[in-house]
Amino acid sequence: MNGHRDAAELLAGARAERASLERAGLKGASLGAKERMAIPQQEMPSQDPHERARNMDEVALGYSEDQAVVEASRCLGCANAPCVKGCPVGIDVPAFLKATAAGDFDVAFSVIRESSMLPAICGRVCPQEKQCMSSCTVGKAARDPLKAVAIGRVERFLADRARAMASAADPAAAKGAQSPARAAARSGAVSTPANAKKVAIVGSGPSGLTAAADLARMGFAVTVFEAFHKAGGVTVYGIPEFRLPKAIVEEELRNLEALGVRIVCDFLVGRTRTIEELMEKDGFEAVYVATGAGLPKFMGIPGEDLVGVFSANEFLTRSNLMKAYDRDRAATPLYSAKRVAVFGGGNVAMDAARTALRTGSEEVHVIYRRTEAEMPARREEVEHAKEEGVVFDFLSNPLRIIGDEKGRVHGVEFLSYRLGEKDASGRARPEPVSGSEHVVAIDACIVALGNDSNPLVPATTPGLKVNERGNIVVDGNGMTSIPGVFAGGDIVQGAATVILAMGDGRRAARGIRDYLAARPGTARPR
Ligand code: FAD
Questions:
Q1: Ligand 1 centre and the CA of 353: distance in Å?
Q2: Which ligand 1 atom is the nearest neighbour of the CA of 378?
Q3: Around Cβ 422, how many Cβ atoms within 10 Å?
Q4: Ligand 1: distance of its center to the CA of 472 in Å?
């Protein structure tokens, strides 16, 4: 990480780099491996940290065309394509990079679309450095996955370009009212046969939506049931607007509806209807449970019940889904706090801390028991948080939260730590420093220690097997202990990632197709 660099400077650099590649006659396929390795990685332009720390606009501004072409030209086109194996949905990465380097952007985008329903989302939020980029030969040569070909950034460029072109051709789309014909064309719609078998999807996060898209394309009649008033799962209620604009998720949902998928919101499976009722009374022949991991973990320390203590889930949901940050228009109240402490060191903690800054807190501290080296959050997110002014208090942990006479948070007692031997996770074990207790004035605490699986569906579905952590147990096709009931995403894996949830959705769609094909009287799937 180099600190923030001016966007205009980055774009000018890319323009010059592309021109020099073209001048040398080294376009596309004629570049050798040595020349490709010498091309500098294209940095993502971003908003100025001081400005963005107080607005909700997207931080990363996206690659220019020059940057996308130059970055894609770094791909070596390895014959064994290790990056494809590193992608849970198996996108043909070398093929889309090759087409991008040659300026064939439509071809490049159609390669991605074959495997991914949500490229504009994945291009923004996938931890590529742990997936496709971690296997990239260019990154391996540099001994740093962050220096690999920036696959996600090119994916984002292609997805955004396709959206912009669709909007230009159909201005209604730009206002969120995409014409059915265009949405259908963009999503590769097929008409659902009248006698199609009914499949229910429970939960509209990335896993449910991917399964829904695949099943609709296979010719099934698909209904997605969502508990919230808006579909999209964590991409809508958890990941903040400044990392993933909600208009992008909205558009992906419209594409899904154009495929014939019905999305029913405000429908809590387990209360409005049980899985058994969906299958026995409502005629669904298979169900895919993708209810995620939305049950926040707490620390169990004194004071966690005080006014001003939030789970990261609640805090982010208020801000994202209920738009509490939009104080002039939204009815959802936002707790007002000058000094905020966020407990945890993962991506959710970074999102909560950066949201607290943007919603008016003056001082935001991330409290983490180990050091920066052990923090599970993406390096990019940590750097962005630091640039924006989030303070990191390492080797520290709360002992108790202290309230005032009205029961509102007004301080936290911390204990300092030092690092000891490595523990079972391979990370250095934090050891308390005796006598290091100290109290700090704090007005609000956000607990971001991770989430457990949503328990409602297992609790209301007799015979549905879960493991000791409450995650639903599935076989290699994604089927649970109940025939016809499949599951995947965070409810199976525990809190994981968007792309892993999508991979599960894809596997379950194939599993459901094969399961229904083997049942008598089932319409033949595509
Ligand atoms: P979810 O996205 O959780 O969706 C489940 C849906 O099911 C929800 O909409 C929920 O309301 C609904 N539901 C639950 N119970 C019921 C019910 N009984 N009836 C009907 N509907 C129900 N991953 C990344 O790859 N990159 C990131 O940058 C990233 N950032 C994250 C930031 C935050 C704040 C959080 C919380 C997670 C983040 N993740 C990130 C993780 C990622 O979002 C999840 O792994 C992914 O969304 C899981 O998808 P899913 O479809 O399994 O579940």
A1: 19
A2: 28
A3: 10
A4: 15
Nearest CA owner, ligand 1 atom 36: 238
Q: How far is the CA of 170 from the centre of ligand 1 (A)?
A: 31
> Are residues 261 and 476 in contact, defined by beta-carbon separation less than 8 angstroms?
no
Q: How many angstroms is it from 355 CA to the middle of ligand 1?
A: 18
> pLDDT 10s digit of each residue in the chain, 526 long?
556 788 888 998 899 888 888 877 655 557 788 889 999 999 999 999 999 998 999 999 999 999 999 999 999 999 999 999 999 889 999 999 999 999 999 999 999 998 888 899 999 999 898 899 999 999 999 999 999 999 999 999 999 999 898 877 665 554 544 444 445 445 545 566 767 999 999 999 999 999 999 999 999 999 999 999 999 999 999 999 999 999 999 988 998 999 999 999 999 999 999 999 999 999 999 999 999 999 999 999 999 999 999 999 999 999 988 777 777 787 877 888 999 999 999 999 999 999 999 999 999 999 999 999 989 998 889 999 999 999 999 999 999 999 999 999 999 999 999 999 888 878 788 999 999 999 999 999 999 999 999 899 999 999 999 999 999 999 999 999 999 999 999 999 998 899 999 999 999 999 999 999 998 665 545 5
| Ligand 1 lined by 296 (C-beta under 6 Å) | no
Is there a contact between 76 and 92 (Cβ–Cβ < 8 Å)? no
Token couple for 93: 């990465």
What gap in Å lies between CA 104 and CA 90, rounded to an integer? 21
Q: What are 242's two structure tokens?
A: 């400044």
Which residue's CA is minimally distant from atom 27 of ligand 1? 125
Residue 182 to residues 100, 168, 171, 175, 522, Cα–Cα distance (Å): 24, 12, 11, 14, 31
Token digits of residue 452: 């457990």
270 lines ligand 1 (CB under 6 A): yes
Distance 225 CA to ligand 1 centre (A): 14
Q: Is the CB of 317 under 6 A from ligand 1?
A: no
Q: How much distance in Å is there from the Cα of 490 to the middle of ligand 1?
A: 7
Angle between helices 65-72 and 7-23 (to 10 degrees): 50
d(CA 155, CA 351): 23
Q: Which of 324, 327, 514, 356 is nearest to 448 (CA)?
A: 356
| Cβ–Cβ under 8 Å, residues 161 and 109 | yes
Among protein residues, the one whose CA lies closest to atom 30 of ligand 1: 239
- Nearest CA to 377 among 386, 395, 488, 88? 386
- Helices (H) and strands (E) counted in the chain, each on its own, are 22, 16
| Ligand 1 and 489: CB distance under 6 A | yes
| Best residue for ligand 1 mutational test, from 239, 262, 284, 354 (most atoms within 8 Å of Cβ) | 239
Token code pair at residue 251: 């558009």
